[in-house]
Fold this protein.
Amino acid sequence: MPQLTSSDYLEQRLDNQIDWYSDKSSRCKVWYRSLRIIEIVAAAIIPLLSGMDNLLYSNWIIGGLGMLIAISAATGSLFKYHENWIQYRATSEALKHEKFLFLGGSAPYDGENAFQLLVQRVEGLISKENTNWMVAVKSEPKVIGKG
């Protein structure tokens, strides 16, 4: 099997992972903020509508807004957009940090085994993220009646 060069590793693995974590972080940020805005706006409208006695279907609208708040909050909690946004951004930034230390020849990448050390540290970060994800998935509460 041919040896992987540092430029190949940087392009094919490290840059790919940085892009993936950065993209996922951005998407989670958008989802988190969008759902929170929905909750805030719907919650702010409810007291306004409650004071309007002559509004047709106000009770239905208030009930619908309450459902919208509950669905938005549950969706955000279920998919952990806030937690994932932060974790993915932290992982992306940690990978970038390692890349630039390596490219700059700074410690700990100032020795003769710099590339091997880079691979170990980067794969360690990725492995840690995968392990954290598996722990989070396994710790999710089971739905009663589901296998």
User: Anything to note?
Assistant: The chain has one domain: 6-137. The mean pLDDT is 92. The two ends are 43 Å apart (CA to CA). The CA atoms of residues 61 and 81 lie 27 Å apart.
